[in-house]
Amino acid sequence: MDSLLYPVIVPFAFPQGLPRDRQRAWSRLYSRAALGVSARLSGAPCGPCAKDARGAPLPFEGWRWTVSDTQGLAAALVARRPAGIDVERIRPVSSALLRRLATDAEWERAGGREPETAVRLFSAKEAVLKAVGAGLAGLAKCGLEGRGPEGNTLLLSFAGRPYRVVQTFLKDAVVSVALDAHPGADVAWTVCCPWPDPGPGVRL
Ligand SMILES: CC(C)(COP(=O)(O)OP(=O)(O)OC[C@H]1O[C@@H](n2cnc3c(N)ncnc32)[C@H](O)[C@@H]1OP(=O)(O)O)[C@@H](O)C(=O)NCCC(=O)NCCS
């Protein structure tokens, strides 16, 4: 089984005046572009990218795919092993979400509840929930077990099964890739050029 994974991040801008209800569709264009680049780097065929009734991606020809998008950033990964990707902007997190996200013991392991730590944990959990196909409904079964020896790794579990989450940090965002705990698997990040040129005033 391949041990190097190729997550791809694509910064993008919304066209001026694009209505809010069209922004998700626009973002998806970029997560699919990222998917194409990841497929190419991984040596995977390109799709079909079908989903099950829950909205979870269905594997094709033994390959799994996972995508994420947020304001101005899209990310994707095609891999032979179970994997989930998530991208989040670092921002203040409501106290209600902080309570729902983790127990006191987990916050202690995380090292505090500052926005960067909280968003990092939120993103890591979302990535694991995507790797297992559970979505947010599975949040209560997902726990932070500790931090990896490298500063960019968190160790999580889902229903007792271990997951390793490798993260990379952009200016004000974190991208997480959750892998089943395969000791040899590693991650080679690709960040594409902003596309199209977003112009001044757009956060990347
Ligand atoms: C999966 C989920 C965590 C995505 O998080 P998000 O921050 O809203 O959105 P992201 O951009 O990071 O990810 C969206 C992608 O997740 C994928 N996805 C959706 N449900 C998924 C699941 N159950 N398992 C794995 N991946 C899933 C889809 O590919 C989707 O992208 P697409 O619509 O462009 O194909 C969340 O939306 C979710 O749980 N959805 C399922 C609905 C659900 O369980 N609702 C109960 C809420 S309590």
The chain-level structural class is alpha+beta
Q: Biggest sheet: strands, sense, closure?
A: 5 strands, antiparallel
Question: What is the count of structural domains?
Answer: 1
Q: Assign an overall shape.
A: globular
Tally the helices. 4
Calculate the terminal CA-CA distance, rounded to whole Å: 34 Å
User: Strand order, biggest sheet?
Assistant: 5-9-8-7-6
Order of helices and strands: EEHEEEHHHEEEEEE
Low-confidence stretches: none
Account of the protein in words:
The longest helix has 23 residues, at 20-42. The protein is globular, with a radius of gyration of 16 Å. It has a five-stranded antiparallel beta sheet with strand order 5-9-8-7-6. A four-stranded mixed beta sheet has the order 3-4-2-11. The chain has one domain (4-191): Alpha-Beta Complex (Ribosomal Protein L22, Chain A). The chain is α+β, with helices and mostly antiparallel strands and 204 residues long. It is built from four helices and eleven strands; from the N terminus they run E-E-H-E-E-E-H-H-H-E-E-E-E-E-E. Residues 28, 31, 54-57, 67-69, 86, 126, 129-130, 133-137 line the site of coenzyme A.
